[in-house]
Amino acid sequence: MTKFFYCYNKNLSRYIKNKGIRYVLHGTNKNSGNDYVLYERTHELSSAIDEWQKLQNK
To answer: Origin, by domain of life (predicted)?
Structure first.
């Protein structure tokens, strides 16, 4: 598993932030020009992403 998670989805990033998970940095992809938020992969982050995906699939 990679050590970091690049989040390009603003709504997902907001959800993660509301869970109290802090990001490492915010940046812009040089190739695409899209903004991203970089998170360190933790069990807490993985759980938040899993919850988000379940909410989106309802």
So the answer is: Bacteria
The answer to whether position 12 is within a domain reads: yes
CB atoms within 10 A of CB 44: 14
CB 36 within 8 A of CB 27: yes
Averaged over 16-32, what is the pLDDT? 97
pLDDT confidence of residue 15: 98
Number of structural domains (the chain) is 1
- Looking at the chain, list the stretches that DSSP marks H as alpha helix, in order from N- to C-terminal side: 10-18, 43-56
Q: Is residue 35 part of a domain?
A: yes
